Fold this sequence. Notes:
Layout: E1 2-8, E2 11-18, E3 21-25, E4 27-31, H1 43-48, E5 54-57, H2 58-63, H3 67-72, H4 76-80, E6 86-89, H5 92-97, E7 102-104, E8 109-112, E9 119-122, H6 124-134, E10 138-140, H7 152-177, E11 188-193, H8 199-210, E12 216-219, H9 228-238, E13 248-250, H10 256-263, E14 269-271, H11 274-280, E15 283-285, E16 290-292, H12 319-327, H13 331-357, H14 361-374
Parallel strand pairs: 4-5, 4-14, 5-6, 6-10, 10-11, 11-12, 12-13, 13-14
Antiparallel strand pairs: 1-2, 2-3, 7-8, 8-9, 15-16
Amino acid sequence: MYKLLKKDGRAKRAEVTTVHGTIQTPVFMNVGTAAAIKGAVSTDDLQQIKTQVELSNTYHLHVRPGDKLIKELGGLHKFMVWDKPILTDSGGFQVFSLAGLRKIKEEGVQFHSHVDGRKIFMGPEESMQIQSNLGSTIAMAFDECPPALADRNYVQPSVDRTTRWLERCKKEMQRLNSLEDTINKNQMLFGINQGAIFDDIRIDHAKRISEMDLDGYAVGGLAVGESHEEMYHILDVTVPHLPEDKPTYLMGVGTPANILEAVDRGVDFFDCVYPSRNGRHGHVYTNFCKLNLFNQKFERDMRPIEVGCQCPACRTYSRAYIRHLLKAKEMLGMRLCVLHNLYFYNTMMEEIRDAIDMGNYQNYKAEKLYRMEHGE
Length: 376
């Protein structure tokens, strides 16, 4: 259930009640593709760094260890020892990213596992069954994600098929939620808006899926090749045609600046691999700029990554020590950078919620963007 608490311009502040707890939005979902955040981050760590929602990947967990095994072991929450909400994506993005290994038909998609090459077939029903076996809080509908700059003659039929797939997803989820042995009978379903960068296709699709009365709505197929300006424009024209009284999720986005801009356009769910991926490469976020801890200038720098930050890395360790760990290829260096970055993102979302609550979002956004752009 979605409860809109406050609006500040188009920015929304809400609560989403789920069977695994209440999510305060806007929210950043921490990406744990194979049921773990890359960088040796445990679920105990996630609790410490203010994580509200963990996101796992349907395709990757289907390939290994197998969704049927996870169901046998009590579901994803029990398997990874996490008691808060989990969102599972549908596998649709893997269809996009495995372009060379796939064949798309009306029934679904035939493709080869990136692990062992075996043939996998996934359609709407299969995606819902896998996500039901995982027992996630929120399941994503199975869709095709056309390249952002794809031709209109490709995009329109693709979006029409995604709509037909969504109808099948909804029907199959209703069936699965009614079964006796289903782990999470209250699993929620989010539909996905597609349409590349064609305003009319996006708007028409948003209207069509809004009529299906789903638990939430995502905008997919962005941050896959188009410019930031094009992405913001698509949000400007699309989000007003999605239900205001349901969660709006911008998939796979993004940088802190992307999030600040998208919140201003009515988006309240986000996910992205940037904080963890950048952290594993020694790139860390601060309120003033992004730092590359491999730089020699940090060799003798005994300050924390960011003065005043309360993350597990900054409370204890210096830039100099973390740089040494990274240079020595010690896993602890990666881990500390990932923890810092995720804490930075989760804290920024907290600040965003507070700013909307206080009716001060425009000032907060302007100040945050200015500081991050102009550095220390």
